[in-house]
Amino acid sequence: MSGVSERGLGMELRKFRERAGMTCAQVGEVLGWSANTVSRMERGLRRDTRPDEVSALLAGMGVTGNERAMVMRMATGHREQGWWEGTDTNLSDQARTYMAFEAKATNIVDVEPLLVPGLLQTPDYYRALLAACAIDPLDMNHRIARRLGRQVILDRPYASFAFVVSELMLRQPLGGHEVMARQTRRLLKEALRPNVSVLVLPTSVAAHPGLLGAFVVLEFADEPPVVFVEGRQSAMFPENPSEIETYRMAAESLVALALDQERSARVLDDIAEEHERAR
């Protein structure tokens, strides 16, 4: 079975190969590999790919500078314990890998007990969140533009999305009541999409698996699922299959504990009206 690290590395190598206009066979010539071996590596099925091999492939594809450094960090990552990256520079590497998985997934369950999920955030809400986290104002516009760019993923007809959010969180006026009113209305609007569910975890459900923090479960048509857990300055893709299954079961439990779509919509509408009256 392919590991998350190998799959992320393979996606990056495939991207650079395609950018260089090279076939798998042409890339394989660098190391005397067959086209099938290169294909397996790009799909994360070649677990014994060495860093020196990755370095040679990058040279053959003309990948240099910061891009080469990023891929080499991935090639030397800690695979047995899950892939941790703990600096701002490395976190951006992991963010781009997560977005690659996000773009391929056919089903995503995003559990967010403290925040509105990123794919559903309005610009004003995200700006208020960045300000609360003391992010440099000069960096905010770039982050907001990147966040909005990701949200087009909701337009994919072949993918389904389930967002589990907390009623308590939605009632808190992050950025002020006007910001939260618009944000809650945005959740209602996105929930009208046939492939999107916004499920509210009511305040009456005090004990639930989401108490341990946010996480995302990504499932694919023909590959094992991936779990993403993001912290303040680090993030993790668990590698252990039993740990991944624990997160998957937690996601199923939270979906079951949340209100159904119809009742969630009513609660969202009530919360939006409360914020609108208070602004």
TrEMBL record:
Protein name listed in UniProt: Helix-turn-helix domain-containing protein
Origin species: Actinokineospora xionganensis
Domain (HTH cro/C1-type): residue spans on this chain: 13-68
Pfam family, one: DUF5753
InterPro entries: Cro/C1-type_HTH (IPR001387), DUF5753 (IPR043917), Lambda_DNA-bd_dom_sf (IPR010982)
Cited CDD domains: HTH_XRE
Coiled coil: none
